[in-house]
UniProtKB/TrEMBL annotation:
Produces ATP from ADP in the presence of a proton gradient across the membrane. The gamma chain is believed to be important in regulating ATPase activity and the flow of protons through the CF(0) complex. NCBIfam families: ATPsyn_F1gamma (TIGR01146), PRK05621.1-2 (NF004145). HAMAP family: ATP_synth_gamma_bact. PANTHER family: ATP SYNTHASE GAMMA CHAIN, ATP SYNTHASE SUBUNIT GAMMA, MITOCHONDRIAL. GO terms for molecular function: ATP binding; proton-transporting ATP synthase activity, rotational mechanism. F-type ATPases have 2 components, CF(1) - the catalytic core - and CF(0) - the membrane proton channel. CF(1) has five subunits: alpha(3), beta(3), gamma(1), delta(1), epsilon(1). CF(0) has three main subunits: a, b and c. GO terms for biological process: proton motive force-driven plasma membrane ATP synthesis. SUPFAM superfamilies: ATP synthase (F1-ATPase), gamma subunit. Keywords: ATP synthesis, Cell membrane, CF(1), Coiled coil, Hydrogen ion transport, Ion transport, Membrane, Transport. Pfam families: ATP-synt (PF00231). This is ATP synthase gamma chain.
Amino acid sequence: MATSLREYRAKIKSTQSMKKITRAMELIAASRIIKAQQQAAAATPYARELTRAVSALATFGHVDHKLLTENPEPKRAAILVIASDRGLAGSYSSAVLKESERLIEKLRAEGKEVDMYVTGRKAEGYFRFRQRPVVQSWTGFSDRPTYADAREVGDVLTAAFLIDPEDPETGDPEREVDELHVVFTRFRSMISQTPEVIRLLPLEVVEGTEAPENGDVYPLYEFEPSATEVLEALLPKYVNHRLYFCFLQAAASELAARQQAMKNATDNAEDLIQKYTRVANQARQAGITQEISEIVGGANALADANAGSE
């Protein structure tokens, strides 16, 4: 019983140490969620005005641009998968990877070839383990994305979409992309995060020609030097900002999933500590009872021996 008691005490000690770690990770994730939500809120006014400007250009500017033009016979699609760099976040990464697999199957069933772009070490490792080619990957910013990170990714994806196969210097028919889809996790609440797919390119302008609500009036724009040149400058910014929005949503979702996972781990550690403490107490009581029984038995045997000798 003494050996068993030592084992239980060692388990209790190790579980208490693990509980401290998971509790600390839970608090860190909770504090970072607030920062991610504040970043998303701070970026909203700029995104709204940029969307209005692009909507006005696309709707009233009568401009033909490849980012706005849909290929009637798309042959190749690119997919950007936004996953996490670290684990300990429950089913966060696995859910977005499953959603990406469903999208890949759908696109291939439509007769399209698929190019993979990934962010996050989990997605990178997932496709590398299965020996599936990835055109480019980015890591190191899944829970703290910046606009510079979104711009870096957006520039690469936009360049792939704008490849001209007829250009003898930069054209590459094997790399021409007709569609770009993004698979990310949308943050809905602290307990609800859902994987989602959006088609980023060709652009689907959010506001379009819908009438404003609550008496609001869309501003009138005068484009100088021309609507074409303004659109040429605005569209990449619009793409990059939509990517930044996806990164912020994914970061908040990852942190919420990690907080929930660490909270569950902390609760489970507490349950284990209570269980091991109860079993250790039972083992200690059983040891004490056995020792008392041995002492009583020895005393009775000694008394019987003394009575027999008399």
